[in-house]
Task: structure prediction
Amino acid sequence: MLSRMPKHGKKAIALTAAFSVLSFLPAFAATRPDAGETIGTIQNRNEVIVPGKTAPNVESDAKQNKGVKENQGPKIHVASIHITGQDLYREDVLLSLVKDGIGKDLTMEELNTRAERISKYFHDKGYLVAAAYIPAQSIRNGAVEIRVVVGMYGNIDVKNNSELSKGKVNAFLKNLKSGQYVKKDVLDRALLLLNDTSGINVKAKLAPGKKQGTTDLTVEIKDVQKIVGAISVDNYGNSYTGNERASIGITYRNASGVGDELIVTGIYAGSNLRNSGISYQEPIGTQGGQLGVKYARTHYYLGGSFRALQASGDADVRGIYYTQPIVRSRNFNLYGRAGYDHKTLDDHIATLTDADDSDKSYVNNKNDNIFNFGIIGNKFDAKGNGVTSFSLTSSLGDLSINTASVLTYDAYYAKTNGHFAKTNLNIQRQKYIAKRLSYNLLLSAQKASKNLDSSEKMFLGGASGVRAYPNGDAGGDTGAIITGELHFDMPTPSFQLAVFIDNGRVVINENAYDSSSNKTVLTGAGLGFIWNKRNDYSLRLDFAWRLTDPLYGDNDKNGRVWLQGIKHF
Result:
C-alpha cells in the first residue's frame, strides 16, 4: 500500500514512524521539548507587572485664608447665603451643601463648618488648595457671604539637578502654567509621567504664593543610581534543560540624557540552556509614550531521559513595542500596548533522519510573526491596603513551517501552520485583610483560535504555575491557572509565611486530531517561606504537594521543592 500512496502521504508515514522512536525511550514526557516550549517555560507569571513607578511625594503647606475663626460670640440670623469667588460650579449646586443653615441662628463656628463642606466639595473635584471661608463682612438683613478661593498657580520653579535634558523636563510640565487652577489630576499626571522617566526621582512642593489666592509650585529633579540590576539563582528549570539556573539582569538608566533605558538579561543552566536578551526603550512625545526594541536568543540541549536523542535547538526573538499611558493617576492607571515579534525556531535531532533525505538528520525550522495589542493597568483601594492589577492582550500571528517533512506531518495532524489568534488575560488581587494577614490571588488565562505551536501554548507546571508539577508539564492551547496565597507577616522583620493552592486546566489541542485525552487538570497546594527586603534581597522557598494524579509517570510523592534567591545591586 505504501508504494501506491502519493509522495506526501509517504512522507507523513515516514515521519510518524520516526517520531514513534520516542515511545521506546524511557520516562519520556508526552511530547519532546523543543525551542518553542523552551522559551515558553522561561517566562514568569508570578505577578502582573504594570509600567510606571510609585507616585512622587508632593508636600503642601498651601493654605488659603480661612477667614473669621470665632468659636464664641453672638449668633447670626441667616436669612440667605451667597457664594462668591468662583465660576466653576452653579451657585445653586453649592448652596445645596449649606441650605440647612438658612433660616437659622448660627455661630461663626457653625458657619465655618458649612464653609468647610464647600471646601471639601472642591477638593473632591480635584482642586487641591481650594478653600471656602467666611470673610470679614457687615451682615445686613441676614445675608451671609461664603467666599471661595479656588487657588491658581503663582510661581512655578523647576530645579533640575539631574542629567535629564531641560527640554524633556519642560515638555512633561508644559500643562502646568501660572494663572491656571491647581487641579489634582493635571498635576498628578504631569509629575507621575515625569517621575516615570528612567534615571530620575521627582519631588514637588506647594506653598502659598505672594499674591492672595495663588500657590507656588516647586519641582525638584535628582538623579538616581545609574546602573541597577539583580542576580538570582533558582531551581525553576526542568530535568531536560537543567533544574538549577543562574540569572542576571542589568539596567542602564537615562543612558543618553533623554530618559532612555538599556536592559541586558541572561539565564544560564550549564550546557543545557543559555538565554540572553537585550532591550532598549526611549520616551516618545510628552505624554509618557515609550518605544522599544528587543532581542533574545535561547540555546538548548536536551538532557535527562531525552539525552539519547542528541536533541538541541535555538530560538531567536526580535521585537518592537510601544506603551502609552491612557490614564495615569495615584489610584488608577491604564496603559495601551502594541508590538510585533518575529520568532525563528530551530530544532535538531542527531539520531533521527529527515523524512525527505535519509542521509540527513532531522531538522525543524519555523518562523512565527506576531502582532499583539492590549491594555495593562492597576487600581489601588481607597484605604491603600489593596491593589488590583490586570492585563489583556490579543495576538494575531502567522506560523511558517519551513521544513517540508514537518509541514506535511502538521497538515495531517495538528494543523498549526498558518494564521492564528489568541487572547491572554491576567488578573492579580493583593490585599491586607488584617495587620499581619494578606492574600494574593492570580488568574492567568489563554484562549486560542486553533491549534498552536509550542511557542504559543501555555504550560501549567512549574514554580510560576501549579507548583506541585515540573516546569513544562501540561502544555495546551486554551486554559487557565488560578493561584491563591495567604501570607502571614511574622514578627521577624521582612519574613512571611505563605499557604497556597494552585489549580490549572488546559485544552491540549484547540481542535483535537486523535482519540487521546485532550484535557488536563492539575491541582496542588503547599507552604512557602518568604524573606524579603525591598530593593536589597529576597529569598523564597516553596514546598508543594499534588492533589491530582501525576503526569508521565512522575514519582514525587514527597512533594516538590522550589527555591529562589535574588540579590539586587
